[in-house]
């Protein structure tokens, strides 16, 4: 990694990497992509330091971690949402003002039509052969954001409803009912239990 850090002339990016490495375990290519997507979104949405953001990551692989450690977006505080489409893509937005039903967001995608211009990185992306994280990240540093495509969308602001806490009539455990159902999801669909 030191080899790559030497190529970075941006103290802000260096500080970000120093925080991501112990959190994620090492600087993976996916985590570096997450950092770059975050920084792109900061510019595109004019996100200020300390301002709360929300992110939906379309893969669980690496990408969510920079958003967690650098911006405090977690699953528990609902700042991080994972919709696992197996895509290197993320949608980012700021907090909505009171009463707003939708909010401007940006969806950023690692674009194969652009990564093709960086053959070593493209080979990593398409999993064509084994490419080291060092080599893949070197190309990302060289590309300097030139591998992403994005567009703006309006996303709905979640409405906070009253929690309808119910006791399941089979297992006796309490759960938050979505409507007025009397069985928890496990008891309603025992064959669909997931661990
Ligand atoms: Zn139950």
Describe this structure in words.
Residues 23-141 form the Formylmethanofuran dehydrogenase subunit E domain. InterPro entries: FmdEsu_dom (IPR003814), tRNA_methyltr_O (IPR053194). This is Formylmethanofuran dehydrogenase subunit E region. The protein is an alpha+beta fold. The chain has two domains: 2-156, 60s Ribosomal Protein L30, Chain: A (2-Layer Sandwich); 161-195, no CATH class. The protein is 35% helix and 21% strand. The protein contains eight helices and seven strands; from the N terminus they run αααβαβββαααβββα. It has helices at 2-5, 11-24, 29-44, 64-71, 112-115, 119-125, 133-143, 185-188; strands spanning 53-57, 80-82, 89-94, 102-110, 148-156, 164-167, 174-177. Strands 2-1-3-4-5 form a five-stranded mixed sheet. Strands 6-7 form a two-stranded antiparallel ribbon. Helix 6 (119-125) packs across helix 7. It is globular, with a radius of gyration of 20 Å. 25% of the residues are buried. Residues 168, 170-171, 173, 183-184, 186-187 line the site of zinc ion (ZN).
């Amino acid at each position: 990694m030191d080899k790559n850090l030497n190529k970075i002339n941006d103290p802000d990016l260096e500080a970000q990497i120093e925080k991501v490495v112990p959190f994620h375990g090492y600087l993976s290519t996916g985590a570096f992509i997450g950092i770059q997507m975050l920084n792109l979104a900061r510019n595109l949405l004019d996100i200020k330091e300390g301002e709360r953001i929300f992110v939906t990551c379309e893969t669980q692989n690496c990408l969510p971690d920079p958003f967690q450690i650098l911006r405090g977006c977690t699953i528990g505080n609902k700042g991080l949402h994972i919709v696992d489409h197996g895509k290197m893509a993320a949608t980012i937005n700021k907090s909505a003002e009171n009463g707003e039903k939708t909010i401007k967001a940006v969806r950023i995608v690692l674009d194969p039509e652009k990564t093709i211009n960086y053959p070593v990185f493209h080979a990593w992306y398409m999993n064509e052969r084994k490419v080291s994280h060092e080599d893949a990240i070197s190309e990302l540093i060289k590309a300097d954001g030139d591998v992403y495509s994005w567009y703006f969308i309006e996303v709905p602001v979640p409405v906070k409803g009253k929690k309808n806490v119910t006791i399941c009539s089979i297992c006796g455990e309490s759960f938050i009912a979505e409507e007025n159902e009397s069985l928890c999801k496990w008891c309603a669909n025992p064959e669909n239990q997931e661990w």
